[in-house]
Amino acid sequence: xxxxxxxxxxxxxxxxxxxxxxxxxxxxxxxxxxxxxxxxxxxxxxxxxxxxxxxxxxxxxxxxxxxxxxxxxxxxxxxxxxxxxxxxxxxxxxxxxxxxxxxxxxxxxxxxxxxxxxxxxxxxxxxxxxxxxxxxxxxxxxxxxxxxxxxxxxxxxxxxxxxxxxxxxxxxxxxxxxxxxxxxxxxxxxxxxxxxx
Amino acid sequence: xxxxxxxxxxxxxxxxxxxxxxxxxxxxxxxxxxxxxxxxxxxxxxxxxxxxxxxxxxxxxxxxxxxxxxxxxxxxxxxxxxxxxxxxxxxxxxxxxxxxxxxxxxxxxxxxxxxxxxxxxxxxxxxxxxxxxxxxxxxxxxxxxxxxxxxxxxx
Lengths: 197, 155
Prior knowledge:
The structure holds 2 protein chains of 2 kinds.
Chain A: H1 2-22, H2 38-60, H3 63-80, H4 87-108, H5 115-122, H6 126-133, H7 135-140, H8 145-156, H9 161-168, H10 172-192
Helix pairs in contact in A: 2-3, 2-4, 2-8, 3-4, 4-9, 8-10, 9-10
Chain B: H1 9-18, H2 23-31, H3 33-53, H4 61-121, H5 133-149
Helix pairs in contact in B: 1-3, 2-3
């Protein structure tokens, strides 16, 4: 029963993430419907930067590029003077910005280049090495960019279909079938790599 | 491919993320094909995500804040400068048009006056070459440039 071992031993990470997000000084609610000052930005950044970078690495497969996109996403968030209802609202907006940046990157990238190949060849730092060894990064690269984003936002970020639709610029009603197909494909990729029974 | 989904997926996903599951939900997740797959994929992704979150140090938040504000100021200053340079270009074009219009009116009279000077030169014993249009224009330009060349307006 590999499935059982896997399932309930791997969920500790999710629990830790949930605990990180729901407690401690970094999770203090941000002032309602206000643009950010430096203090609230720092709190927001401490809460969101690592999950956002993980999302970007998962989606593009390249930690160096992910860092660049991460910085650009925060720049745009600050410059937008976005007035959020609450922290979740702002967080979703940030992921939306990041998703748009990823789209821009996919559009600009020449079709013959692969981020994960570049990264494996470069292998500059610890982050690159972790990502290059990550089964998740390799598996996600087998999917289409939209499928990666869908799966991540739904299963790692735990966004609702409405929030995912907003982030990806899709209709809410189309999320369920797209997510279903992306999950099927991911399960297939995992099986083909020997990562699932 | 039929995209049927289980109505308990939200519960199962929450259990995957928190690690807390009831026996009844565990039995369901084992028996339901959709939920089995969900647990497989979501569990794998959450584990991998935790690994990636730990990958390397993050850029400093203070630095990001400072750079974002600097960039904001640059954009504002570029906007302000672009308005000024637009006004400069418009005024240059307008000035050019006015000059051309004036020249169109004045030049024929100027040339006829110069021609008149040439024809009158021999009456007052001025050498003809001195009244040539080119020479007159050069003298005028010289008079205009002289204060600048000799720094007559001071530093």
